[in-house]
Each structure stands twice: as C-alpha cells, then as structure tokens.
C-alpha cells in the first residue's frame, strides 16, 4: 500500500534490505515455469545513456492496450473521450489506455458488485445513525484539477504524491484524482456540511495482490458549528475528534460485528490531528482508513470560518477483500460469471468461493538502471504489455558493479484467473511487445 501522504520510498528500502548477489548469480539463466522461475534476461538494459522505462513504457502501453478502450464514456453527465485523457504526443500526459479503459466503469455503482454492496451498507449505517443528514455523491468526475487534488487540501508543493511517478496527469494542470479528498473544497463551497463521496481513484503504483492502479475510496465529511460543542466542556477540535472516532468505531462494528480495533496516530496535510483505524482480522492489523480533524485553513478558504470538521477516507477494496474473502484485487474487475454471480444486492459478507487457481508463470528480468529508473514506471510498462495477466512484480536482486552501474532483477508473476498460461505464450508476449 502506498500511502498518499507518507513519503517513504519502498523501492529504496527494499533495495537496501537485499543482499547484493554477485553478477553471475543475478544473470544466470534457468528454464522452467514451475516453482523455480526461469530467468528471462530480456533485451531491456537501461544503461545511463538509454531511455528510461518511463519513455519506453508510454509507447509500449499505448499500442498494446488500446483494444479495450472505448470511444467515449459518460461520467455524471460529463462525456470523456479517449483523446481527452490519453495524449500520445503530450509530454505532460502519462495516462495509458489501460487506465482510460477503467474510467466510467464505476464498480461502486453496481448494486450486485462487492464494492456496490459495501457502499450501500455504509450508506445504511449513516442513514440509520444520522437520519438523512449526509448528502451522497458517487458520480463526480474523476478528472480534477491539480488545485482540487492537491492545493485545496494543502498538499505541499514538493510532496512526492504530486510527482509524475505517483499520479496520472492528463496535462500539467489536470489529473485523475488520486483520492476522494479532491472534492472536499468544492462541496464545502457549495454549502454542504455532511457528505459522503464515493469514487474511483487512480495512482501509479507497484503490482501485487492488494495494489491496483485504480481503486475506490469513500470520503466522509462533517462540519460542526460552535453551538455543537459549546456545552460539551471540550474545545471544537477535541469534540470533533471524539465524534469522529465514535462514528467510525460504530461503522466498523456495523460492517464487521464485534472486532478488535485500534487507532494509530499519523500525518495528513489536510487534517490535524490525524489517525488511521486498524482492524484485527485474520491474525493481523489491517489499515482500513485515514481520517482526522480538518485543518482550519480548508474551512476558512471555503466559507466555514469558526467551524470545525472531521473527514475520513476509506479504501473500499481493502474492506471488501476482508469482508468477502476476495484474495486478489484484480478480481474486482472480472466479468467472469463465476465471480459476478457470487454476489447479490444487500448481501454483505458472503464468502467468495475461488473458482480456480491456475498456475503462475514466472519470468525474471534483469536490466541496468539509471537514476531515472523507478519501480512505478516499470510496473506501468509491464501492466501495459500484460494487462491483468500480471499478478506481481517483485525486486529479487540488486547489484552494483565496480564501475558503479546498478542492475535490478525483477520477478514477474503472470497468472490468469481464467485459464492456464503457457511458458511459450508469455515468452512470445514479452518478446513481441518489448522488441
Ligand atoms: C488518503 O487517500 C487520504 N485522502 C485519506 C483521508 C481522507 C485522510 C480525509 C484524512 C481525511 P491514504 O493514501 O492512506 O489516504 O488512503 C486511504 C485508504 O485508501 C487507505 O487506508 C486504504 O484503505 C486505501 N488505499 C490506499 N492506497 C490503496 C491501494 N493502492 N489499493 C487499495 N486501497 C488503497
Ligand atoms: Mg494510509
């Protein structure tokens, strides 16, 4: 999970943690699709003078995945055409067709889909406890301005989440929202004081069973006026923080029944204090949401001076994977009847019965990197070539030679959820599309 807000560099951390094997080990060939993966040393050597994966990726992506992209989609009455989002010649654009093809699908608006079932159950909780006070939005356009996504929620100018490595830019001023907090300011300005915003959000990220570049969040926001806290013996901030925790603990019980949970202090630019809620589930603590008391500046700038507010942002896939026992985040996008037929409106917590677990096909890929290399760019290239066949991309070796050149070896796990993959077809796909 890449936190929007923390700036930890997972790749660097992992690289540091790895023992550096001798070059011979890093590049030794082997061959089998079974437990010991073959080493496929593709002709992808990014020497310092060679193009970085970002540049290479953009081209690969745009030719390989366009078949799935529709001509135009409608989101809340806004028509979004491919050329509005994917601009091949524009260096300020980094949106591939694989991402465009997800815009407008709005899984959270399907009542028979696990994400729709979960959204409706959260709505039920707020309707029951706040009798219609919360306005609900689930159809706001995911194309937002840099101002909405970052400036309006006080994300610092140099924050890592603004980088082209982490965010999909349509142009220098427009992004695919990377969190539903992008809508806080406009809704406040429109006069809303209690609202829930559900939507698809987009982040360039690593690849594994819990990360997908498109996922879904629900934002909650509640404004208090001085009358609300004046008799409480608390100041506005303490009052809002207590109400926030009570509200979210109630929501967690509504979803999970009696569960162990804990609050963890954290940091977000738009809230202070800030917390994460973790739930103990299947022998581990799981972060399910971020939240906090809204920074005064946001309220002041949007017409609510002298008020306080709380806000939260929860990850729907995170919760749904736990509630429905869904083992791989790619499954949410499946149209396979064997997946879709297992879920129906109003039925939260029906346990998913895996219909297949086809064998993975592993390929290892070694290449020299330069200072421009990033893991997110590599993942984008791989996703552009293999689409949803790629299950995981994992750094397994990191080696620096005497001249200071560094090579990385990544293990790519390919696995179809519908059939067995052959070694040959994956070899062909890699060679065809990378040459
Ligand atoms: C945010 O996005 C903040 N906007 C949340 C927030 C809103 C905080 C309002 C305070 C006030 P973060 O990046 O941690 O924070 O993401 C929030 C939740 O989204 C996470 O707890 C997790 O459940 C989910 N999430 C984040 N990244 C992913 C991902 N790559 N895949 C699936 N779920 C994710
Ligand atoms: Mg987080």
From TrEMBL:
Function text: Is responsible for the charging of tRNA(Phe) with phenylalanine in mitochondrial translation.
**InterPro entries per the UniProt record, alphabetical:** aa-tRNA-synth_II, Fdx_antiC-bd, Phenylalanyl-tRNA_Synthase
**Every Aminoacyl-transfer RNA synthetases class-II family profile domain range:** 199-354
Q: Which residues cross the membrane?
A: none
Nucleotide-binding found in the keyword field? yes
Main location per the UniProt record: mitochondrion
**Any idea of its EC number?**
6.1.1.20
* UniProt-listed CDD domains: PheRS_alpha_core
- Which Pfam families does the UniProt record give? FDX-ACB, tRNA-synt_2d
What biological processes does GO assign it?
phenylalanyl-tRNA aminoacylation
Where is the protein found, in the record's own terms? Mitochondrion matrix
Q: Its GO CC terms?
A: mitochondrial matrix
Question: A single Gene Ontology molecular function, please?
Answer: phenylalanine-tRNA ligase activity
Tell me the protein's name: phenylalanine--tRNA ligase
Catalytic reaction(s) noted = tRNA(Phe) + L-phenylalanine + ATP = L-phenylalanyl-tRNA(Phe) + AMP + diphosphate + H(+)
- PROSITE patterns, sorted: AA_TRNA_LIGASE_II, FDX_ACB
So what family is this one in?
Belongs to the class-II aminoacyl-tRNA synthetase family.
Q: Which positions fall inside the FDX-ACB domain?
A: 356-435
């Amino acid at each position: 999970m890449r936190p929007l807000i923390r700036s930890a560099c997972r790749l660097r951390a992992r690289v540091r943690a790895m023992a550096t094997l001798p070059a011979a080990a890093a590049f030794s060939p082997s061959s089998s699709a079974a437990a010991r993966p073959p080493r496929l040393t593709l002709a992808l050597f990014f020497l310092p003078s060679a193009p970085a994966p970002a540049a290479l990726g953009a081209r690969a992506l745009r030719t390989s995945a366009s078949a799935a992209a529709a001509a135009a989609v409608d989101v809340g009455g806004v028509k979004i055409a491919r050329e509005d989002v994917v601009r091949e010649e524009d260096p300020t654009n980094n949106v591939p067709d694989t991402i465009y093809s997800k815009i407008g699908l709005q899984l959270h608006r399907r009542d028979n889909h696990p994400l729709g079932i979960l959204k409706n159950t959260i709505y039920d909780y707020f309707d029951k406890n706040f009798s219609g006070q919360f306005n609900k939005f689930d159809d706001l356009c995911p194309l937002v301005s840099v101002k909405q996504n970052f400036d309006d929620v006080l994300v610092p100018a140099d924050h890592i989440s603004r980088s082209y490595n982490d965010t999909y830019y349509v142009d220098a001023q427009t992004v695919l929202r990377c969190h539903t907090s992008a809508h806080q300011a406009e809704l406040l300005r429109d006069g809303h004081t209690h609202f829930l915003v559900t939507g698809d959000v987009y982040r360039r990220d690593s690849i594994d069973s819990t990360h997908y570049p498109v996922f879904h969040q629900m934002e909650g926001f509640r404004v208090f006026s001085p009358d609300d806290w004046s008799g409480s013996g608390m100041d506005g901030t303490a009052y809002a923080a207590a109400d926030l925790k009570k509200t979210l603990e109630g929501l967690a019980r509504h979803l999970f029944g009696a569960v162990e949970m804990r609050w963890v202090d954290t940091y977000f630019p738009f809230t202070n204090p800030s917390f994460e809620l973790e739930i103990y589930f299947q022998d581990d603590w799981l972060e399910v949401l971020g939240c906090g008391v809204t920074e005064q500046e946001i309220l002041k700038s949007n017409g609510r001076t002298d008020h306080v507010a709380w806000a939260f942002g929860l990850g729907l896939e995170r919760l749904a994977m736990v509630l429905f026992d869904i083992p791989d985040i790619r499954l949410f996008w499946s149209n396979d009847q064997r997946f879709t037929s297992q879920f129906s409106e109003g039925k939260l917590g029906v346990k998913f019965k895996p219909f297949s677990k086809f064998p993975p096909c592993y390929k290892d890929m070694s290449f020299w990197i330069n200072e421009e290399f990033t893991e997110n760019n590599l993942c984008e290239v791989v996703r552009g070539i293999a689409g949803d066949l790629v299950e995981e991309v994992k750094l397994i070796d990191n080696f620096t030679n005497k001249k200071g050149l560094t090579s990385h070896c990544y293990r790519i796990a390919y696995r179809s959820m519908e059939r067995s993959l052959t070694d040959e077809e994956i070899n062909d796909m890699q060679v065809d599309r990378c040459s």
